[in-house]
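Risk register update: the risk of archive-format incompatibility is retired. Evidence:
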Amino acid sequence: MSTRPTSNLFLYIGKPVRDEYGRQVGKIASFAVTPNGRVNGVFVEHGDGEFLRYSSDQFKMEGDDITLTPTIKLKVKALCDEIPLIWRKDQALSELVDKKKIPSEMFTELHKNFEGALNQLKADAQANMEGIDKQIAKCNSQIRELNSALIHIEIEREIGRIDDSAYETALQMVQEGLKRINSEKTDLESLRSQLSNLMLGDTTTLGREPENKATSTPPLPEPPVVVHVKSASKTS
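Archived output:
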C-alpha cells in the first residue's frame, strides 16, 4: 500500500479484504497512522470477530478491490534480497584484506558480524521453510477433502437425492475451492524452492556463475535492494 494521505485511505473503512486467491479475509476497521499522516499499519476485522493488525506493505488496492498479500511472500522476498547481500559484503571484505586495504584485526571483527547476521538469516529461512511445509500439508489435506466432496456430490445426484440446481451450485463451489487451494499450493511450493535454492547457494538464485577461485564463499550476485519487512500479527 502506498503511503497516501489518510483522508483517502479512511474511505476504505468497512471495505472487504480478500487474499490473492479470492477468499474473503475480513473488513478494514482502521489504520495505524504516523505523526506525519502516513499509514504504516492496517487493522482488519476477521469473520470470527477477531481484530488483527497487518503491515501496510501487504495491501494492494485497485478501486474498491483490496487484496492482502501473504506475510510469507514478503518474508521470502526479504530473505532472498538480504542473504546474497550479506554474502557479497563478506566476500568484498575478504578481498579488501587480501589487498591490504584494511587491517586484519578489523577484518576479523567485521567478518564475525557478517557471519552472525548470515547465520541468523539462514535460521530464519529454515524456520520459514518449515512453516511453508506445514501450509503445503494443510493444502494437500484440503484438496483431499474437496475431492471427496466431489465424489459425494456425484453419488447423491446419481441416486436422485439432489436436483440439478443444487448439484450445479455445489459443483461450482467445490471446483472454485479446489482452484484456489491448488493455486495457493503452487505459490507455496515456489516459495519453498526459492528458499531451498538460496540455502544451497544455487547459482541461478544468486545470479552469477561460480568463479574459479580458491575460496569457500558461495557465488555472489550483484547487490540487491534490501527490503525491510514489517511483521504482521498473523500469517495470512
